[in-house]
Design goal:
The protein is α/β, with parallel strands linked by helices and about 375 residues long. It contains ten helices and 16 strands. It folds into three domains: about 140 residues, Rossmann fold, CATH 3.40.50; about 110 residues, no CATH class; about 70 residues, no CATH class.
Amino acid sequence: MITFSQFSIRDLGRITLLVGTNNSGKTTVLEAICVLLAVGDPSSIWSILSRRGEDLWGERDPIASLSTSRQVDIRRLFRGHEIEVGKSFSLHADTDSNPISMLGMIEEPRPVQPTLFDTEAPPPESAEDFLPPLTLTLNWNPGRGMTLPISRRGGISIESIHRWTRSGAFDGIQVRYVTASSLNAEHVMMLFEDIVLTPAEERVTQAMRIIEPDIERIASSGGERIRAGSRYPGRGGILVKLKGIKDRVPIGSMGDGIWRMLGLALSVVQSAGGMLLVDEIDTGLHHTVMKNLWRFLYRCAKEFDVQIFATTHSRDCFQSLAVICREDVAQGSDVTIHRIEKGEAETVAYTEQEIVVAADLDMEVR
């Protein structure tokens, strides 16, 4: 996980494509947006660290009383990857309405007076059990703050997260995150069931036709089987009706590109008034469909008032974006490319006109 000592992106568009070398921090930028716009929901941090594989399992923690709890390691949230009092990270965004800021800091816990009902903690088992207890304090402005106990191993527990997520509604902006590995079957079913028999259903079908023009409609095969289990462990739950073919076709038999397109289409139509974040947007997609994908996403972004951030390593992806800059995007800054360079505090930005010129001259912007 890349951590920035200081980093900013200016002049964003309705669609912002992030480019850069491997391990330059593109995914970290998407994750920072998730955390900032969650405004009071700590599950955003849990989800990010869990996707990263920052898991800690099952060792007894005498202070936090976490004997079998799943935890995530928070060290890589901080520059230097160390758990120390005073370590912090901060995020800030200027929005069309009000600025949003967020501060995360490691602190010593406030002292709590013992009561008659306190039980004695189990004896320590290792040298690290003698470390002082610490907390992770998270404060959003505007919004609310919270304090999460840090275990001896530098983790926060799922129980701590659940205590806050059960405590009420949050004020965050709607943010959907599509990883490079796409959505799982349960998530796809949940999103699809919400749009059945609405205009958004036809938008999703149109997106599927970018890859397979013979698709007439798509339908659910029953979400209960996905949630329960295992008939479709990776992909499934959606059936496709193809022109000229009598039998329904399970979507899992139609390849990676169709599944990726379905996840992207469902995510953008379900992000109305919010933000869609897509890591490695062209994963599983042939370069010949990218132009029409960008066109679809841009039109949906305007229709549903969605701001899109995406990352890529692909030259074809950026050149396809240049095509819609010529054809579909008005003069201005609705579409931008930002190149992230290691060690630099700001991105190198390209406007719509510069994207077109770079593509015409076969310039390297990644």
